[in-house]
Task: inverse folding
């Protein structure tokens, strides 16, 4: 049973990995990567590392790959063909591939083959449980654990900062103050995302649409200057 | 085939392989039987709440309506849009239903009991990673919706899938964090262990904030009203399942209702003391599953009640609620619980 599962999962993992680079459509590449990650989770299960398996599925298949799928489904369809490589890159890729191949062979011949005849590492029944994993992370590996979380925090803050500058790289000349024609024609309170988030601008008691045609609406003239800088959704 | 060979994950109770297969079948059939009851209950209750009768033509009191409908769905012609992608289009409902049934396996209906001399747990599986198991399957279930929407080759389906993607990611975080408080209080990940730890006081009392966050996020995770934006019928026809019909659509609906049951049962397990009754009432063990089902009924009623009461949120409101209110609340809850647990343990 375990052997059968191993070969199914291993085949799935290898096929998924090949699919990622061989498939033309980026959406299928991403799906193939998901399949690869799920197969890896099955291999972790066979090694009695349930927590790692679950974390693998929740974090990679559930969060990271979801965002990949999201982006590829939105923008990937427009250009299914990957652009042809620059000639220099192709030669460089062969070189790097050869280096990695040699390195893997050294690792495999050097140490990996010795384990084939052995019984494998001794198995402690409590090894890999969430309790033991948590204890190890918070005692023995406290510093790397905290450093990693700090790194993730910095990355998250960086992402927020970059996303706020989405309109343009120049913060001094943010065009958030610009008023579009649609804004001028649209009665206040008719449901833009911005109104939903930051509430209605003060319209001075007059219901929308009550201005006769052709006159300037006071809230547009007055409000254009003091709009919030970061409103956009 | 020994039990050990079948055992992929570390479990607290090792059973014979035929017991495991039997249990899997029984749990699947129970879920299959509860669902029509839930559906007829939803339609009848919503009817009453909206001053109408609800279905009352097929069978006594209209109780056979789901039966008639499943026959209707099964006999429908199988059609698909010309733009659909064949294999993925068929695979998507299968993923949805597979993950929904798998997640259902973790719900404990009772403790391990002696049946004809063999020790049998009244649950599918009690894994050491506990609720992470449900989240793992929830992560895979997402691909059912996503592939369904994408492979249909229709813009309504696609937009529905995209909405559900953003919604599921946003609320999964709060849902998971809301349970951290419970896990810290119970000091175990095992679901039966959590139920046993609630003897004396259910966690809905000390973990009330966690309960609220979990339920709100649960509504969003199961795409139920008022968070049913992925299939907002006024804008998106039927969301990711717009192009589906016949038994494939039934599979999606089945998975959706099953997810609702799983979330309800998890709430029962984590916050309402599972199979335990309050005030020291200790019934014989065969009553335990019925107690769980009774509590499940309360939650299902609540889900239906909310659907009939609250209007749908707008998309930006949905995102603000998830990220600006629920996530800080859940984090704060986990932080306060951690401090309290440490203080209590040191005294």
Result:
């Amino acid at each position: 049973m375990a052997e059968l599962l191993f070969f199914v999962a291993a085949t799935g993992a290898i096929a998924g990995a090949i699919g990622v680079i061989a498939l033309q459509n980026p959406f299928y590449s991403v799906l193939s990567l998901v399949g690869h990650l799920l197969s890896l989770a099955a291999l972790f299960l066979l090694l009695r590392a349930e927590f790692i398996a679950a974390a693998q599925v929740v974090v990679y298949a559930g969060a990271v790959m979801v965002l990949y799928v999201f982006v590829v489904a939105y923008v990937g369809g427009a250009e299914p063909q990957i652009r042809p490589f620059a000639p220099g890159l192709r030669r460089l890729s062969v070189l790097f591939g050869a280096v990695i191949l040699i390195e893997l062979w050294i690792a495999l011949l050097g140490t990996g083959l010795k384990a084939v005849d052995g019984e494998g590492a001794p198995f402690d029944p409590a090894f890999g449980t969430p309790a033991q994993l948590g204890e190890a992370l918070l005692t023995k590996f406290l510093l790397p654990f905290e450093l990693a979380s700090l790194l993730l925090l910095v990355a998250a803050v960086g992402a927020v900062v970059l996303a706020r500058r989405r309109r343009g790289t120049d913060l001094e000349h943010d065009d958030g103050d610009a008023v579009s024609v649609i804004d001028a024609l649209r009665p206040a309170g008719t449901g833009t995302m911005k109104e939903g988030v930051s509430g209605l601008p003060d319209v001075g008691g007059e219901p929308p649409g009550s201005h006769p045609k052709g006159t300037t609406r006071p809230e547009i003239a007055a409000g254009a200057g003091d709009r919030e800088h970061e409103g956009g959704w | 085939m020994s039990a050990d060979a079948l055992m992929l994950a570390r479990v607290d109770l090792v059973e014979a392989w035929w017991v495991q297969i039997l249990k899997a079948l029984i749990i699947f059939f129970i879920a299959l039987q509860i669902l029509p009851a839930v559906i007829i209950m939803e339609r009848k209750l919503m009817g009453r709440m909206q001053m109408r009768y609800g279905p009352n033509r097929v069978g006594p009191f209209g109780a056979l309506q789901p039966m008639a409908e499943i026959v209707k769905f099964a006999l429908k012609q199988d059609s698909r849009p010309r733009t659909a992608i064949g294999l993925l289009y068929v695979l998507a409902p299968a993923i949805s239903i597979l993950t929904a049934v798998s997640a259902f396996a973790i719900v404990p209906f009772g403790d391990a009991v002696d049946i004809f001399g063999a020790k049998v747990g009244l649950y599918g599986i009690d894994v050491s990673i506990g609720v992470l198991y449900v989240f793992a399957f929830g992560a895979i279930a997402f691909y059912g919706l996503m592939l369904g929407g994408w492979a249909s080759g229709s813009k309504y389906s696609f937009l529905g899938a995209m909405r559900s993607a953003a919604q599921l990611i946003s609320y999964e975080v709060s849902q998971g964090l809301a349970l951290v408080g419970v896990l810290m209080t119970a000091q175990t990940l095992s679901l039966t262990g959590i139920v046993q730890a609630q003897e004396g006081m259910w966690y809905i009392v000390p973990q009330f904030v966690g309960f609220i966050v979990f339920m709100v996020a649960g509504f969003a995770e199961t795409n139920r009203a008022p968070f049913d934006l992925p299939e907002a019928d006024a804008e998106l026809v039927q969301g990711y399942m717009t192009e589906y019909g016949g038994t494939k659509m039934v599979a999606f609906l089945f998975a959706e209702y099953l997810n609702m049951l799983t979330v309800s049962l998890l709430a029962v397990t984590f916050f309402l003391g599972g199979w335990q009754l309050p005030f020291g009432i200790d019934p014989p063990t065969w009553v335990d599953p019925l107690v769980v089902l009774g509590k499940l009924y309360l939650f299902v009623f609540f889900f239906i009640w909310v659907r009939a009461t609250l209007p749908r949120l707008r998309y930006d409101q949905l995102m603000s609620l998830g990220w600006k209110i629920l996530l800080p609340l859940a984090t704060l809850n986990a932080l306060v619980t951690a401090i309290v647990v440490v203080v209590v343990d040191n005294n």
User: Anything to note?
Assistant: The CA atoms of residues 71 and 247 of chain B lie 10 Å apart. Chain B has a mean pLDDT of 83. The beta strands of chain B are 112-115, 118-121.
